């Protein structure tokens, strides 16, 4: 009898560990399944990138990609595919782990979205630390101006490796950390309440999750789009003068002639990409979580 409480506690700990593991597994699975839309919309993403870097209208960006040909169209697709799967595994799993670590000491925290948002903030910071090198490589590969000097993934990796960490793989880390932390915090804080509101309109659970993920990601993408533009411009070049965040922002704002409209060039396309990928990811993740309960 004396050992019964300990036995129950061990079973509870094992159960909690399995629940945490499932969050990582479901996050990775949902992101892996959403890689098909990622591949399909990669030309859209690359069009956005060209607009962010060269400040060109969408028609001119499309003509650039068409002239380069189909082979170069998918240059740089490998990092986002790998990053997408690993990102979902870490983001969803770590947020769930942090949420359950915070819950016992914050039982009276209000509003209810505060804890998921706080856990999302922590997960976003870790995500930035892990995936900034992936984004750096991706942006270098997607910049057509690097094709001749850095023709392959290996050449990019070798070149970045010999540079200082802050100029090489972790160029643009601080705006990425701000974007990912804020984005993850808003996503995990809002998607639940939005899903409840949408479900109240009579939609199925899967449809509610999809719409929730879509609406939430749309709002986040619009709000944080300038940070994505800043990151793309900071990371696209290799070598040369490495300006800090403030100097890079001033140069970007000057290149956009102080126009918010020009700064948001390509924003409509990134909304489309976010709607597809995060809508699908949210729906698959929530469906898996409900089935495992």
From TrEMBL:
PROSITE patterns per UniProt: SOLCAR
Record's subcellular location: Mitochondrion inner membrane
Membrane topology, as annotated: Multi-pass membrane protein
Keywords: Membrane, Mitochondrion, Mitochondrion inner membrane, Repeat, Transmembrane, Transmembrane helix, Transport
A GO CC term assigned to this protein in UniProt: mitochondrial inner membrane
Molecular functions per Gene Ontology: NAD transmembrane transporter activity
Family: Belongs to the mitochondrial carrier (TC 2.A.29) family.
Protein name as it appears in the record: Solute carrier family 25 member 53
Lineage, highest ranks first: Eukaryota, Metazoa, Chordata, Craniata, Vertebrata
């Amino acid at each position: 009898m004396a050992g019964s409480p300990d036995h129950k506690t061990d079973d509870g700990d094992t159960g909690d560990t399995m629940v945490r593991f499932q969050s990582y597994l479901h996050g990775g699975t949902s992101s892996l399944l959403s890689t098909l839309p990622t591949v399909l919309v990669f030309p859209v993403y690359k069009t956005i990138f060209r607009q962010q870097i060269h400040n060109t209208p969408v028609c001119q960006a499309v003509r650039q990609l068409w002239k380069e040909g189909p082979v170069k169209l998918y240059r740089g697709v490998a990092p986002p595919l790998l990053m997408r799967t690993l990102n979902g595994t870490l983001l969803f799993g770590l947020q769930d782990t942090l949420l359950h670590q915070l819950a016992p000491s914050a039982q009276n925290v209000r509003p209810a979205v505060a804890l998921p948002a706080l856990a999302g903030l922590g997960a976003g910071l870790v995500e930035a630390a892990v995936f900034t090198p992936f984004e750096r490589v991706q942006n270098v590969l997607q910049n057509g101006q690097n094709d001749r000097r850095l023709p392959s993934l290996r050449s990019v990796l070798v070149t970045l490796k010999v540079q200082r960490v802050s100029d090489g793989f972790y160029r643009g880390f601080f705006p990425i950390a701000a974007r990912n932390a804020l984005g993850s915090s808003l996503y995990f804080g809002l998607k639940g309440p939005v899903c409840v509101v949408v479900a109240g309109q009579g939609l199925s659970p899967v449809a509610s999750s999809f719409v929730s993920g879509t609406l939430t990601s749309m709002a986040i993408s619009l709000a944080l789009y300038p940070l994505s533009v800043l990151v793309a411009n900071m990371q696209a070049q290799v070598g040369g003068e490495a300006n800090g965040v403030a100097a890079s922002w001033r140069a970007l704002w000057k290149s956009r002639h102080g126009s918010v409209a020009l700064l948001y060039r390509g924003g409509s396309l990134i909304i489309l990409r976010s709607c597809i990928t995060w809508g699908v990811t949210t729906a698959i993740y929530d469906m898996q979580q409900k089935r495992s309960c």
